[in-house]
Specification:
Helix content is 26%, strand content 17%. Helix 3 packs parallel to helix 4 and helix 6 (186-201) runs parallel beside helix 7. The chain contains 15 helices and 20 strands. 51% of the residues are buried. It is globular and about 75 Å long. It comes from Sphingomonas qomolangmaensis. Belongs to the glycosyl hydrolase 13 family.
């Protein structure tokens, strides 16, 4: 099949099916005003780099008005831009440039909770009979004054906070400063849909829904049962419970259908849920089931995995059967919360080879591929000293909890510049000591760099319908080697082989090599090597 014919096949699909999405963490991408914090004008200035990768869309982490107790996920105005990031006019300018460059724009929506500084919560906590009294989850204490249920916060300790104004507890599944919205309330649902409309009317192309399975609670406030013993470490009180009552309520899919209908009334927008927890597989299937719900979801299969193995990949793929009633998966190997994959999954001596293989694997999986800023450079996790920590969970549980700050450090643009091209000499988090050598300008000058490799693979994925949106079959998987087959109707069948170990293994190349990294000659597949072969048409 010709390249033109393959492109026509790809164009017949929705733009988001098989898309490569580039996540931008605004505080750390680029600083246009020199105050140490990245901002929207900084993103606008650096968008050409993102477009040059060949990605389909950008996803912006929160830039909304916020006291920043949880880096912007504590929203004080769902329709406002925090001054640290700029203005609504700056957002409109960013949107306009992104669209000129052919990039779709996705933004976060946080429907589980708000900031305690949000005017809605200020009014809600003022009395038991105000207009927004029931907009948040309030409950009386037990007769002995203790919290109304045993629910625990993600960040540790009880999920209930006493408030003397109402002589009641309010629910906070995350920080105390992040009270949970009562999304069962019709007026709260309408308010959140109103926030979605605000951004849709400004031209955004879709949403990523944060912690969506926390959006509704059990109104009966029943205690969570304990989790059966596992071999996983339990460092938070949250880890001891089966969270069936403070999240995962069966009415969430009903609200999702309202939300999805609202989005589709604005055109071909894209919806993607973040789903974590012990019942992630069931909930991702529910939230994306059928045409009336969300387009996609991603979970934590890879984000906190200690090792990248064939079994891990096979297990992740098994949750998304290629059937009409199932949604479309999205995959991320790292993000703003999860440690850099090259630091988690391989030794420093193998980082370069591993990063190339890992990128080819991510871009060969059936589903959307989410790249986190700097992943195209092979950035590793940064060790942040205690005195520079910003992450509230890491500060509270030092040194046990791995800081999320280590993956949120500033993007290195110029290797030899004092500010690494970020825009400020003393940014809100320190640069990685070895990130200068991996900076964008350094890799631009090296034709064999991971940056150039990433561009090549994204272009290949765009040109090959089998890779972008074809079906997927696991051919084989042992302790080291994973072999996948990708097929698209009317197109070629591609066989993709990945050695996820650091040792060479026996392997026979049985097709025309389309792309490869590492050693695949002489009947072996080298450590952290991979090859994609074209099969019969």
């Amino acid at each position: 099949m010709s390249t033109a014919a393959r492109s026509l096949l790809a164009d017949a699909e929705p733009w988001w099916k098989g898309a490569v999405i580039y996540q931008i963490y605004p505080r750390s991408f680029a600083d246009a005003n020199g105050d140490g914090v990245g901002d929207l004008p900084g993103i606008t200035q650096r968008l050409d780099h993102v477009a040059g990768l060949g990605v389909d869309a950008i996803w912006l982490s929160p830039f909304f008005t916020s006291p920043m107790r949880d880096s912007g996920y504590d929203v004080a105005d769902f329709c406002g831009v925090d001054p640290v990031f700029g203005t609504i006019a700056d957002f409109d300018t960013l949107m306009a440039k992104a669209h000129r460059l052919g990039l779709k724009v996705l933004i976060d929506q946080v429907y589980s909770h708000s900031s305690d500084r949000h005017p809605w919560f200020v009014e809600s906590r003022s009395s038991r009979d105000n207009a927004k009294a029931d907009w948040y989850v309030w409950a009386d204490p037990k007769p002995d004054g203790s919290p109304p249920s045993n629910w625990q916060s993600v960040f540790g300790g009880p999920a209930w906070q006493w408030d003397a104004r109402r002589t009641q507890y309010y629910l906070h599944n995350f920080l105390v400063e992040q009270p949970d919205l009562n999304l069962h309330h019709p007026q709260v649902q309408e308010a959140m849909l109103g926030a979605a409309r605000f951004w849709l009317e400004r031209g955004v192309d879709g949403f990523r829904f944060d912690a969506l399975n926390f959006a509704m609670h059990d109104p009966l406030l029943r205690d969570n049962p304990p989790l059966p013993p596992t071999n996983r470490a339990r460092r938070r009180s949250f880890d001891f419970q089966d969270k069936i009552h403070n999240q995962s309520h069966p009415d969430i899919p009903v609200f999702i259908e309202r939300l999805a209908a609202e989005m589709r009334s604005y055109g071909a927008t894209f919806s993607m849920a973040e789903v974590g927890g012990d019942h992630w597989a069931r909930e991702m299937a529910l939230y994306t089931q059928g045409a009336a719900r969300l387009d996609s979801a991603y979970g934590f299969n890879f984000l906190y995995a200690e090792a990248l193995t064939p079994a891990l990949v096979v297990d992740a793929l098994s949750v998304w059967p290629d059937t009409p009633d199932h949604g479309w998966p999205s995959w991320a190997f790292e993000n703003h919360d999860a440690p850099r994959a090259v630091s988690r999954w391989t030794a420093p001596a193998h980082a370069r080879a591993f990063a190339r293989m890992k990128m080819l694997l991510l871009l060969s999986l059936r589903g959307n591929a989410i790249l986190y800023q700097g992943e195209e450079l092979g950035l590793g996790q940064v060790e942040i000293p205690f005195e520079r920590l910003v992450d509230p969970e890491a500060i509270a549980n030092w040194p046990i909890t791995l800081s999320r700050d280590g993956v949120r450090t500033p993007m290195p643009w110029q290797g030899d510049a004092k500010d690494r091209g970020f825009g400020s000499i003393d940014p809100w988090l320190p640069h990685g000591a070895d990130h200068g050598a991996l900076a964008v300008d350094q890799q631009e000058a090296d034709g064999d760099s991971l940056l150039h490799w990433t561009r090549r693979l994204i272009a290949l994925r765009r040109a090959e319908p089998a890779l972008r949106s074809g079906s997927s079959r696991v051919v084989s998987a042992d302790e080291a080697v994973l072999v996948l087959e990708r097929t698209h109707p009317g197109g070629a069948t591609l066989r993709c082989a990945f050695n996820l170990s650091d040792r060479a293994v026996a392997f026979t190349v049985d097709g025309a090599v389309l792309v490869a990294t590492g050693d695949y000659s002489g009947g072996i597949l080298g450590g952290y090597s991979a090859v994609v072969m074209r099969g019969r048409a």
